[in-house]
Amino acid sequence: MEASQAGYISFIADDDWVAPDFVGRVMAALEEKPDYVGFPVRYTLDGAPQVPVEHSLRHGHWNSVADVGADAVLVRDIVHHNPIRRELALLARWRTDHQNGDEFWAADLRATGRVRTEAWIPEPMYYYQETSQSWTRVREGVPGPMPEADIPPLPRYHWLTAHGR
Question: Rounded to two decimals, what is the model's pTM?
Fold first, then answer.
């Protein structure tokens, strides 16, 4: 986060996927100049769809599926996968000494009260694919090639370059 010169940052894990139109949809959402971009997440376990997941400021907290009952929705407000103003992201320290560093970072940001406005994208933009053995072995990639025909060529954006290169 400190090394970035971009106005917004997000962290996409190397073992997850984003929607084919992620960059275009996020760039359109950023035209509103929000503090944060929220969206649903498609979550699967061993390939089977799990409870709906929403990353949105309107939830105001993180909770687990067990906390919400029969009509379960896993909700999180501030998540590092979602674009957030860099200046706001830097208000909290990312803890590298704990496996829940992301949750501590979100709680610290929430406590500042500074992350207020959101642009909402209603379609899933992030795909979290977990296996029942996720924590016991290295994850494998999704089998087969990406559907090239469905992915338009990516345009160049100034924020995708490192230090103006």
Answer: 0.77
